Amino acid sequence: MSTEQKLQAAIDRFIGEVTDLIQEAAIETVHAAISGAVASPRRASAAPKKTTRKKAARKTAGRKAGGKRIRRSAADLRDTANAILAFIKSNDGCAMSDISAAMGEEPIKLRPAIQILLEENSAHTTGAKRGTKYHPGGKRGGGAKKAATKAKRKPAGRKKAARKAKRR
Which runs of consecutive H residues, i.e. helices, occur in the chain? Predict the structure, then answer.
């Protein structure tokens, strides 16, 4: 048997196996449709969606197994905020990853509690985005800077004053 004949025989066997598998899949789909458990057909060439860990955490955070959203109570948020504040006081300048590791929770679940602390001025941040560090106590020196920038602003021009008068 020549190499070409061997190659043709291997191709014929492969095509036969693929045809058998396609027929089995079609029969299974028909049986599932008859029994009422129809699965939505999917294209074989469609690639699965890629999700990052952050997106997956956002999707599953605050949800129980049934898929419905769990609303955390104010008391639960307050308890979490108090625990975070105690951690921040003992570890000044910690990052969100440090807090989440110490609390044993995902960062997405801790954000509302941290937001409460920031709004109450129980804690403040330095840095931005991934470099954010958390410190105990209220904002340091933020108010004086805002007042100084407001004083430096130019007075409203004639057009702006005319628009304001027109609105009245």
Answer: 3-35, 53-60, 74-90, 96-103, 107-119, 142-152, 158-167
